[in-house]
Write a structure and sequence with these properties.
Keywords: RNA-binding. This protein has about 400 residues and is an alpha+beta fold. It has helices at about 5, 40-50, 55-65, 135-150, 180-185, 200-215, 225-230, 310-320, 395-400, and strands at about 15, 25-30, 65-70, 70-75, 85-90, 105-110, 115, 155-160, 165-175, 195, 235-245, 255, 260-265, 270-275, 285-290, 295-305, 330, 335, 370-375, 385.
């Protein structure tokens, strides 16, 4: 067993380019199908993309000349569509919210790269963050290396996700075409960040992450080791997080097996992940590291076998101890409820909905860090340990004294 994060790199290596003031905007492509051939232009967009903008917003976009039909700008919203016509909507460039841009390389070999992601940086494009992401910096970095080496090296791509407000380990791989990247983005929704550089590494690492979740059906309120033994599971990856939670956690160890499902929520088009009896199985193993009665908070270590979106935030909130500073999840594992849960029909300059006034999953403020991953190397099968340095507020008193 080895710890490459401490042995293979003498000094931390960082990379990252400052973000441009505006991004490049986005282009959305559609082909008119038979079922849509009798619709007008405004009916098509306001029906198919109603979560992107209200009716008046789509009218504004059409009048702005942001939509073309078969390459021609069309400003008449009542234009009838024809089967096979190609529609393109151009979302105008915008200034994305502030985000860090530097990434630290914790470990790198021919198959994968492990990064230390700062809090506040999104991993993959989504919502307001389309350029200011880890993926963009990886693509820029790989392009620079390829140019300097005069070769066409593959682009590293994350094999899982970390929440925007979560810091720590991110592992990536490459050798992917654009369609593979998009497919990967749709499939993977885990929290630790690994990147791979070969298709073999991609396949194995993705399998490692998926295995823990796929074996959870029917397992409730039992120890991890017992569950793994009974199922004959040979775990290929172990993910450890640090978190600071509100209140004093009484038990030294807590296993949380609350299922996680989706509910409708303003400002989140695909719905919000919450604790739900009808959701999918999820397991988190929580261990108390230190209690601070004066500040009424607890430092915990969390091991996750499954990787449901926002799992740690939801599970800790479910047991009555939301992450300290979490703007979204409250006791019970859901969002703060109010009587004003509706979408604001006002719209921004580009016609889209204004940013929700209610908290959304990408909001930061909490302390959650992907600290350590132990995995079987996808090529050599050697067991390796990679760790990301802990932020000061997530260290125990003993760890602070030892530094």
């Amino acid at each position: 067993m080895s710890n490459p994060s401490q042995g293979s790199l003498a000094l931390p290596l960082t990379f990252g380019l400052p973000w441009p003031h505006l991004n490049d905007g986005l282009f959305y492509n559609d082909v008119v199908r038979a079922t849509d051939s009798e619709l007008t232009l405004i009916q098509f967009y306001s029906k198919k993309y109603k979560n992107s903008a209200p009716l008046q917003g789509w009218l504004q976009r059409i009048q702005n000349g942001q939509i073309t039909i078969d390459g021609e700008v069309v400003r008449d919203a009542s234009t009838n569509l024809r089967i096979g016509s190609e529609l393109v909507y151009h979302r105008l460039p915008w200034k994305e919210p502030d985000a860090p841009h530097l990434l630290e390389i914790l470990y790198e070999d021919d198959d994968m790269i492990a990064l230390n992601k700062p809090s506040g940086l999104q991993v993959l494009p989504g919502g307001l963050f389309q350029q200011r992401t880890v993926l963009t910096q990886l693509l820029w970095w790989a392009a620079k290396l390829s140019s300097s080496l005069r070769c066409n090296k593959p682009h590293p791509t994350p094999v899982h996700r970390l929440g925007r407000g979560t810091s720590g380990l991110l592992i990536s791989f490459s050798a992917l075409q654009n369609d593979e990247i998009l497919r990967l983005i749709n499939v993977l929704s885990l929290r630790l960040l690994l990147c791979a550089k070969t298709k073999i590494a991609k396949t194995k690492l993705a399998t490692y992450f998926a295995d823990g979740t796929s074996h959870l059906g029917g397992i409730r309120d039992i120890e991890y080791s017992k569950a793994n033994s009974e199922l004959g599971i040979s775990r290929k990856i172990l993910k450890i997080y640090r978190a600071l939670v509100t209140g004093i956690v009484c038990d030294d160890k807590v296993n949380v097996s609350q299922p996680i499902g989706i509910v409708q929520y303003p400002g989140v088009a695909k719905g919000l992940y919450v604790a739900s009896p009808s959701g999918k199985p999820a397991l988190s193993k929580v261990e108390v590291l230190e209690r601070d009665t004066e500040k009424n908070c607890t430092l915990v270590q969390v091991e996750i076998q499954s990787g449901r979106p926002h799992q740690i935030r939801i599970h800790l909130a479910f047991i009555g101890h939301p992450l300290l500073g979490d703007p979204l999840y409250v006791v019970g594992g859901g969002p703060q409820r109010s009587d004003s849960e509706y979408l604001d029909e006002n719209f921004a300059l580009d016609g889209g909905f204004l940013r929700p006034t209610k908290p959304v999953p990408g909001d930061c403020g909490y302390s959650l860090h992907a600290h350590k991953v132990t995995l079987s190397h996808p090529t050599t099968n050697e067991v390796i340990i990679i760790s990301a340095p802990l932020p000061p507020n997530l260290r125990t008193r003993k760890e602070v004294q030892e530094r």
